[in-house]
Structures are given as C-alpha cells and as structure tokens.
Design goal:
Rossmann fold; elongated; Arc Repressor Mutant, subunit A; four-stranded antiparallel beta sheet; five-stranded parallel beta sheet
Length: 226
C-alpha cells in the first residue's frame, strides 16, 4: 500500500515509517499540515494517517480540506487528544477512524487493514435507500425527508446508512461502533449515543412520525412500523 503519514514529532514519524515499510508498504511523511495538504492533493494514497496537533494546518482542518477533493481515501486520525468531543470533531472533519496515542502498533495495523478493506470492498446493490418518507442516496451522499433536505456530516451519513440498511433490526452500541467507526465499543464513551441524538434532531424533530427508536438495554433501530 501507499501510505501518507502527517506527523510533526520526528521520532513518532520515523517509528511509523519504519514499522509500516517493514510490512511491505511505501510510506511518505510530511512534518506539517501545509506539506501534508500538498502531498495529499498531489498524489494518490491507499490510506492517510494524520496527527491532529500540527504546525501551519491542524489535522482537523487538513482532513476537511482533503475531503473537499477526495471523498473516498481512508483517513485515520492518530493523536493524543482522546476525549469524546475530540473524536466527534475528528469524525465530523471526515476521518474514518480515530486511534489515541499511545497505541499498540499491531492495533494500528489492524485499523489500517479494516479501513482499506472497507474502502475497496463496498458494493451497493442500490443507490437509494428508503424508509417511509426518508430517502438516502448512497452515490450522491444526500439525505432528505419528505421535501426537506437533511445536511449530514460524513459520519452521520455513515451511521444513518447502517441503520437504514438494517431497517427493523435492533442494533447494539457495539454493533454500531464496530461497523460505523471500526472500533471496539468502549462502555466509557458515549459517542454512539451522541450521534444518535444528533440524527434524531435532524431527522425526527420536525416530523410527527418518528423513525429512530431506542430499545432500552438493547440498542437502536430505524423502523416505520412503530
């Protein structure tokens, strides 16, 4: 694989480059956000690994700029900032996964494999998913309910897509965390609940019929028969 690493700490960058190249990958390193953006937009990569605290352009802003030009490349945030709010900011910026320092290198490799596999192995049987008057266009990345267009971030869209593809099925927080965030669910984080609440405000608040439902002690479901 061809991998871009944007990391300003020289020792960490060298550790990542050496470890990933030992796995047979080609790795390019940028030590600040400006150079990271230049490489990211000029070259094609199988995956990009971004630190958050970077000189010139921080990782969140860099991720947003990359996403404006490239919506498909997997992006992994690698940072010491590990609160739920930090993770939400990263996902809202367009990141696909978020790994907190310090980390085990084997876990990093596993996350990379999962992200690359997901980005190259997704097959959509239909470009449009519908539940009641809610419509999700997978190709255009748009959502609308009735005549109202719903603005969603990349992670909100991914969560809604997963829920709608499993219409009527109760999905646990662990199911959602694994499939949408590619992480093992940590009972100490409320990121899934936060995103469910965001979707409720955007999708259900202004409509009499509610589509997102909680099954206490079990999880969440999208269903129009409730």
């Amino acid at each position: 694989m061809k991998i871009l690493v944007v990391e300003d700490e020289a020792k960490v960058a060298e550790f990542l480059k050496k470890g990933l190249e030992e796995q047979g990958n080609f790795v390019e390193v940028a030590y600040d956000g400006f150079m990271g953006e230049k490489l990211a937009l000029r070259n094609e990569y199988d995956i990009m690994i971004l630190d958050v605290i970077l000189p010139s352009i921080n990782g969140y802003e860099l991720c947003r700029r990359i996403r404006e030009k490239n919506t498909s490349v997997p992006i992994l945030m690698l940072t010491a900032l590990g609160t739920t709010e930090d993770k939400i900011t990263g996902f809202d910026s367009g990141a696909d996964d978020y790994l907190v320092k310090p980390f085990e290198f084997e876990e990093l490799l596993a996350r990379i494999r999962a992200l690359v596999k997901r980005s190259t192995g997704v097959v959509h049987t239909s470009a449009v998913i519908k539940v009641a008057d809610l419509e999700l266009n997978i190709d255009k990345k748009t959502a609308k309910r009735g005549d109202k267009t719903i603005e969603l971030t990349a992670k909100e869209f991914a969560l809604l897509e997963f829920l709608m593809k499993n219409k009527g099925r109760v999905l646990s927080r662990a199911d959602i965390a694994e499939k949408v965030w590619d992480i093992t669910f940590d009972t100490g984080t409320n990121v899934v609940d936060v995103y469910i609440n965001i979707l409720r405000k955007k999708l259900d608040k202004d409509f009499e019929k509610k589509l997102i439902h909680t099954r206490i002690g079990m999880g969440y479901t999208v269903d129009d028969n409730n």
